Amino acid sequence: MPGLLPDGEPVPDDGSLPPAALASTGARGFGVYLHVPFCASRCGYCDFNTYTASELGGGASRDTYADTVLAELALAARVLDEAPPARVDTVFVGGGTPTLLPPDDLARILAAIDATWGLAADAEVTTEANPESVTPESLKALRAAGYTRISLGMQSAAPGVLAILDRTHSPGRATAAATEAREAGFDHVNLDLIYGTPGESADDFAQSLARVTAAGVDHVSAYALIVEDGTRLAARMRRGELPYPSDDVAADRYLAAEAALTAAGFSWYEVSNWATSAAARCRHNLLYWTGGDWWGLGPGAHSHVGGVRWWNVKHPTAYASRLAAGRSPGLARELLTAADRHVEDVMLRLRLADGLPLSAVAPAQQPYADRALADGLLEPAAHAAGRAVLTLRGRLLADAVVRDLLP
């Protein structure tokens, strides 16, 4: 089931932001995230804020969801009325399974975002999708509505691995959907992989990588399986039905991904993401990783504007009820201090291929950067040029390097 939201101070009923936050809206870019919390079934590893039909209960419906989102968008327009963003650079529709909504609803929401703040001429507009939730016709409708990028949840091409993850699509459906998306005219297509699932062999993962590189996509995300408390997968492991993931196996899988994707013409630009060109990189995620602003629409969605981060109530019924009463759906928020923002900047930028300026590392931590260089965790040429950039070995130990570079 979905995890808990953090604590924070209350969000005002009208959603208003401090004047200091509004003063810099969009200075580092502005995006919109839309959370669609619906799924046809729950995958065993998933603790995202998603709900099947049986979990929704009364008061929430896919049929009225677009109208509810538009109510929050109207509230967002009022909050940012005195300092609206110059434009919307990126839109990302995630879930859940966004493509369980009709294409017309997704089109209507995108058109409303454009009418509210204006989409940049080259705006990147992404939707996530499960492979079985799209058809050639629905993909063409989404492309005609202005969606430029699609991210398909493949996870694996091995039937046994898909079964352990409780994925319902066939092994070949994800790559077939990727082909359909390219034929529909999408500029960019991503396939997601999960590695390190119990029972996954090296050959299983090699086959998944081979399918991905043969699919003609221009972006791949690959993540190690994380077992979250409260999920069906965690329960199976506690009962001894499945072994826990191995860090050593995960490292081997990451090295295999790097080798296969590099050979196929991909380059890493974030520890878990590879693209065939700079234009194929996910600009919306880069907005997050480089301290940009975004408004998150939908239950459980997080937002960030001018150093204020807030998050909405999680359940779709509570979300709809607040908006129907004319109140912000925001549950709580935090005002980031300069120290908070520095920590996040180091944590996120160090994961990027562009790296982190060494000038952003506190003087007391500079010896740790030198040690990481000596240990082969940072690139020598980049270090000499004043930047901390992870080597391949450094990427495997990224969390440890980040810890060392923070006070």
TrEMBL record:
Signal peptide: none annotated. It comes from the Bacteria. It is found in: Cytoplasm. Keywords: 4Fe-4S, Chaperone, Cytoplasm, Heme, Iron, Iron-sulfur, Metal-binding, S-adenosyl-L-methionine. Residues 24-267 form the Radical SAM core domain. PROSITE patterns: RADICAL_SAM. The keyword Lipid metabolism does not apply. The keyword Iron-sulfur applies. It holds the Pfam family Radical_SAM. Probably acts as a heme chaperone, transferring heme to an unknown acceptor. Binds one molecule of heme per monomer, possibly covalently. Binds 1 [4Fe-4S] cluster. The cluster is coordinated with 3 cysteines and an exchangeable S-adenosyl-L-methionine. Belongs to the anaerobic coproporphyrinogen-III oxidase family. HemW subfamily. NCBIfam families: hemN_rel. This is Heme chaperone HemW. It comes from Micromonospora zhanjiangensis.
